[in-house]
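Much of the work behind modern protein science is quiet bookkeeping, done one molecule at a time. The protein below has been through that process, and both of its lines are reproduced in full.
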Amino acid sequence: MPKDGNLTKEKILDAAEALVLDHGYGATSIDLILEKTGITKGAFFYHFKSKAEMAQMLVERYVKRDDELLFSLTEKAEKLSRDPLQQILIFLGLLIEIFDNLEEPPGCVVASFVYQFEEFNVDTKSLVTNGFDEWHRVLDEKFQIALDKYPIKLEVAPSTLVDMLLAVFEGGLIVARMVSDPKIMVKQLTQFKNYVELLFDQI
């Protein structure tokens, strides 16, 4: 492999991600990717056996970034507080801060793929579900510890709270991109944080 092989591969994935977010997976052809990157078809197939393999690597890269964000924010929250509820609220505050500093609304590769899920193989689908499972694994535990320590106003399962957060997160990304307003994410995540505070009688 040439020394710049990884750079070319990342260039292809960057271009494919931008096109998928703008046009959807189905409308993102290899020819469009080639046009955007300026590389040859031979170079594309040197790195990817097919469009489907490229899609799998695209999802894998996106889920990895998502997991890195999860671990980074939970680690910061744990350093700032030993209290389980405060760790959750700090985590949400840090997440809100990230989106508050964005000038352009980000997109979600997973959301772009979900309506064409039948086109992907089992491995690609597993990457998506495993990504969500990882957020559940980490945050379910955080919420359970907080629920064990603090009384709440309504009965709720930790997994339901995490589902709600993921729904707000993924839905917010879609709406923010649709209306070209990154602050949608800030508003929606703030509402979820407010709900958690009200649930635990912290307001």
